[in-house]
Amino acid sequence: MKPMHAVALLVAVAAVALIATARGGEEPPPAAPVFGVTLPDGYRDWPLIAPAQEAAPFDELRAVVGNAVAMRAFRDHQRPFPDGTVLVKRAWKRVPSPDFASASIPGGATTVQVMVKDSRRYAATGGWGYGRFIDGQPVDEAQHRTCHACHAARVKDRDYVFTHLAP
After folding, report:
1. What is the model's pTM?
2. Does the keyword Signal apply (predicted)?
3. Cα–Cα dist 166/148, whole Å
């Protein structure tokens, strides 16, 4: 092996070791089947795009949050959304408030749903990849295949996004 190749190989091995050490030797996060989408780091701290309440049969309270790219696109009315946009829908069972009879509060978490915009990687689905997670684990492949069909049937003209930025 030539000395320059050996140095390059050594640098690459050191970089991989450094990354593994920085991650604490953790396994990569579980990826959703079909699209390979994962739960984004820090999504619980992202800004709110809009709340939602889902009627029967789900009976859920939901909150859609977005990364900085998504927030900028919503505020600037940029459509189609740019690559790098990530939307996350968090959902909880709706339960009556014990303190105020007409109010609802979040109960147990039900799902976390993720949309990732990457026009090259997900060209066949309008540029969007989808993932659904329960307790941090992706749900089965059949459920993932329904995501795009539902979005395409109802909101294709809005770049496949149901959510509107709350005023």
Report:
1. 0.81
2. yes
3. 23
